[in-house]
Amino acid sequence: MQTQTLRILGRTTSINVRKVLWLCVELDVPVAQEDWGGDTRPTSDPAFLALNPNGLVPVMQDGDFVLWESNTICRYLALRERRADLLPVDAAGRARVEQWMDWQATDLNSAWRYAFLALVRRSPRFDDPAAIAASVADWNRLMRIFEAQLERTGAYAAGPAFTLADINMGLGVQRWFAAPIERPTLPAVAAYYERLATREGYRLHGRNGMP
Questions:
Q1: pTM
Q2: Does residue 3 carry a pLDDT above 70?
Q3: What whole-number distance in Å separates Cα of residue 13 and Cα of residue 26?
Q4: 1 within domain boundaries
């Protein structure tokens, strides 16, 4: 097990930064988090771009090793800490976890993006009522897919046990409940939300009132 303090660069209002911070609580890994992006230090700073030329958060420094892309950071940390319960070593088990991680990062995030930027971030570039309605409808459609998955597993995203997939999906579910939109009643998703709230990492970095 590693004891060296990780350096995590990124503001805590970022859903992708919160993902990494939550995982670090699950792993009991010490973290030095620094605010970058948004209204904090600009990611256009040459010092930041030297670590991530994309200018996006989060960035992780583990000693001399630098890594960006939140899902990749999460996979790295789970492997580094030898947490096969979070990221299985068998091909099928790992693929099932990564399927839901990637679905949240691509399909689900793409669905909510327009509505979230319009209704929560209040971005003037996202003010088309038809586009907002379409985004909300697609968001709810995908959440119904997740409802059906939870009905199948009875507990968590990839099966009966908590995995990395639930860090992605747990943050996605929190964003759905926090957004000022009309939502269908999804009992399995609601129960999942409450189940995750028993975890310290989710209370600190997931279900913490942030959009």
A1: 0.94
A2: no
A3: 19
A4: no
